[in-house]
Design brief:
The protein has a domain of 90 residues: Sandwich (Immunoglobulin-like). The chain contains 1 helix and 9 strands; from the N terminus they run H-E-E-E-E-E-E-E-E-E. The protein starts with a helix and ends with a strand. It has 147 residues and is of the alpha+beta class. The chain binds copper (II) ion (CU). Copper (II) ion (CU) binds next to loops.
């Protein structure tokens, strides 16, 4: 009994030493990850779908002679359902401004000579709205329809 026990102890000690010597380099490094996730999820965006009023808007101007109005998802705005919208005005140039006007006494703008981002709430009612850069209103402009 004692002989077997000692032999067993020696064997276990040996295994322990070998294990320690290997210092974790022998860790199971099989990190073959199952990439079965379907990356071809159907994210076809239908741009003709009405934009939800809960989606924020982003008016951007500059740094070049660019002005745009998009949803926060990045889709260009051409028409919107009437409603209250959070509008983020991103003015990236001191040479330009973003100025939105239209029905319902909507008249919001950033300042020429300043840069920065500001958030305003606009209540859009049916009609045509126009956004321009005031110093370059003939070329830097866009319109969209609210219905
Ligand atoms: Cu301008």
């Amino acid at each position: 009994m004692t002989r077997i026990a000692l032999a067993l102890a020696a064997l276990l000690a040996g295994v322990a030493l070998v294990g320690a010597a290997c210092g974790g380099e022998d860790e199971a490094t099989d990190t073959t990850t199952e990439t079965t996730a379907d990356t071809t999820a159907d994210t076809t965006t239908d741009t003709t779908e009405p934009i939800d009023a809960a989606v924020g808007l982003k008016g951007s101007v500059g740094p070049g002679f660019e002005i745009s109005l998009s949803t926060q998802d990045g889709a260009a705005v051409t028409s919107l359902p009437a409603g209250s919208y959070e509008l983020e005005i991103e003015d990236l140039s001191t040479a330009h401004n973003f100025h939105l006007t239209g029905p319902g006494d909507v008249d919001v703008m950033s300042e020429v000579g300043e840069e920065g981002t500001e958030n305003v709430t606009v209540d859009l009612v049916p009609g045509e709205y126009t956004f321009v850069c005031d110093p370059h209103a003939s070329t830097m402009r866009g319109t969209f329809e609210v219905s």
